[in-house]
């Protein structure tokens, strides 16, 4: 990989998304300052940071909820600013929010196509093409490695990881080139987190650019091609895989020196007991 | 896909129902049908009254209880759709009175043709429904409160307006209006003599079938479930949430107008207090039919069955020679039983998470 921290380097083909020194201010509050990274097709860029590090602001800028105050957003080499989430979606950027993605009491196929139902027939007989909807949903879920036995099963009966998969498969099917996954593993158990990480790899292998937001370096490290660590709205750094070890990442993400200090303090407390 | 990728999904969480057991899977599937409870309930009630009252099981008896169930059922189906969409309408009952009175005053005081009066009544109903919906989506207040306000406003207008215009508490003499006979043929006639089933039964069946079609086969139906199940998720995937909700409120008001018109044409007159208190019957029928109070789940057929249960109960009590006041006790029991069954079904349907 040729990308270093800071500005994106010269590439033969423009990356799916490039962020150049983007800042976001809310009044006099600096929410983000000089964030830069790239997202390539078929790669996973992990954005790490503790609570309050600026992860959500960063996603909101990328998904069109907020507009950046300074810097440049380039989509396939073109400078862009998203006025709304709809703009971002039109540019092929799909955001999968953790719990706001699916309706629990609806069948999987209904969820999959909610808002974009395939239609058949004309006039008063115009109706949802249920056969097609079920078939496409089955195929798309199979590509994610999930065998849906009953398309009428309610999404609420799926596990947390599988529900994420429905949202991801849906985003991919409806033309997303880039996926932003907001803390997809934070509410899941160990096993289910593994399942979701597998879906991330599946999406990557299908040529999508993925931004994986997480506060867990153990989840980020195995799937990431690039790691961006945020702390208090600033970028602590960006590394390609292989340039940073898991331990370094863990340390970096929790503020390195701060963690050492904390460890030290806790040990002392234990000793004094 | 590789076996490795399949592995995690083929292991359900420990508390989930194992779908490889076809028997359990079938039962779960059956329980997922919202109208199941109401169908069983209707069968039990039917059996009970056929045993206790001789006339109940005859065709003439059936004409009586389907009559009660039909106007109630039209409203129950409309209210069910609204409840699936996640909202309530407490003004639906009194709206039947408003519609009847409005049509009556247009036809008698202003001497308009009945058909024109009917069209204007539907326009008024659509407007009131729009106001309900618009206020709910704009203010974000619970529809319970917004439509409770509408309920009182309409009740006041019905009573006060009728007295001011007619000096009585009723509007009568519609049978003299132009077009009354042809309108009555469509909205308030009988068929199949000598049993005399009401034409409203046909309307009820048609509306239930139509609502079922919309819910299960159309885009709008999918949106109604989505909007009621999770408003934010639905909005995120591009469902026009506010338009769906406002449309549902308008549909309920217009169904109320239809019922009001039917009742008014049937009697040739209408009381100023018509429909007050009925809204709870509609909600009870919808809930008995499997609608969740929290939205996102239910069926039109279930609501129609719920109305059938209430219709059979009202007439069954009368036929059995008991004091008709007992019917309220039945209503309470039906509501409680339905809510308990629905809660159980919902738990089963939602299953284990994570």
Question: TL;DR?
Answer:
The complex is a heterodimer of chains A (273) and B (354). In chain A, 35% of the residues lie in helices and 25% in strands.
Can you describe this structure?
The complex is a heterodimer of chains A (273) and B (354). The termini of chain A are far apart. Chain A is built from nine helices and twelve strands. Chain A has helices at 55-62, 85-90, 108-113, 130-143, 160-173, 190-205, 217-223, 246-253, 257-272; strands spanning 17-26, 29-39, 44-48, 70-75, 78-80, 93-96, 119-120, 127-128, 178-182, 209-214, 226-231, 234-240. Chain A is globular, with a radius of gyration of 20 Å. By secondary structure, chain B is mainly alpha-helical. Chain B has a single domain (38-345), classed as ABC transporter involved in vitamin B12 uptake, BtuC (Orthogonal Bundle). Helices cover 72% and strands 3% of the residues of chain B. In chain B, strands 1-4 form a two-stranded antiparallel ribbon. A two-stranded antiparallel sheet of chain B has the order 2-3. In chain B, strand 2 (190-191) and strand 3 (197-198) form a beta hairpin. Chain B starts with a helix and ends with a helix. Residues 1-24 of chain B have low confidence and may be disordered. The interface between A and B is large, with 45 and 41 residues.
